[in-house]
């Protein structure tokens, strides 16, 4: 019976990243951070609306404040989406929270 040794050249698998690959990674992170910042600024503009307009979107002013004060790398839009969906769900169940 004959056995064969299999050797993996791990240097090829775990080689150094190219400078283009590193630059693409940095640009991706910076783009994501810029998008989060821009979204946060747009959500802050929701404070300019009156309560009736916010309620038309299924939101309250407290929901907007919670989204703005959320941790930076959390998506503030997800807070607003969740709050709006919960409020709509309660509305259709007959429970109204204005």
Task: Explain what this protein looks like in three dimensions.
This protein is mostly helical. It has one domain. 62% of the residues lie in helices and 0% in strands. It contains 5 helices and no strands. It is elongated, with a radius of gyration of 24 Å. The termini are far apart. The mean pLDDT is 82.
What's a quick, concise take on this entry?
This is DUF1127 domain-containing protein. The chain has one domain.
Report the sheet with the most strands, covering strand number, pairing sense and barrel closure.
none
Distance between the termini: 80 Å
- Which class of secondary structure composition applies to the elements? mainly alpha
Q: Secondary-structure element sequence?
A: HHHHH
- Provide the residue-averaged pLDDT: 82
Domain tally: 1
Beta-strand fraction estimate: under 5%
Protein name: DUF1127 domain-containing protein
Pfam family, one: YjiS-like
InterPro entries: YjiS-like
Domain YjiS-like: 30-65
Topology:
Layout: H1 10-13, H2 19-44, H3 51-56, H4 61-68, H5 76-92
Characteristics of this structure?
98 residues, single chain, elongated, mainly alpha, DUF1127 domain-containing protein, YjiS-like
């Amino acid at each position: 019976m004959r056995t064969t040794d299999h050797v993996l050249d791990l240097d090829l698998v775990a080689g150094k990243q190219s400078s283009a690959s590193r630059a693409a990674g940095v640009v991706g992170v910076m783009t994501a951070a810029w998008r989060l910042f821009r979204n946060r600024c747009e959500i802050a503009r929701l404070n300019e609306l009156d309560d009736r307009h916010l309620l038309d979107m299924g939101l309250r002013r407290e929901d907007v404040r919670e989204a703005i004060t959320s941790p930076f790398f959390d998506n503030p839009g997800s807070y607003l989406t969740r709050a709006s969906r919960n409020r709509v769900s309660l509305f259709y169940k007959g429970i109204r929270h204005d």
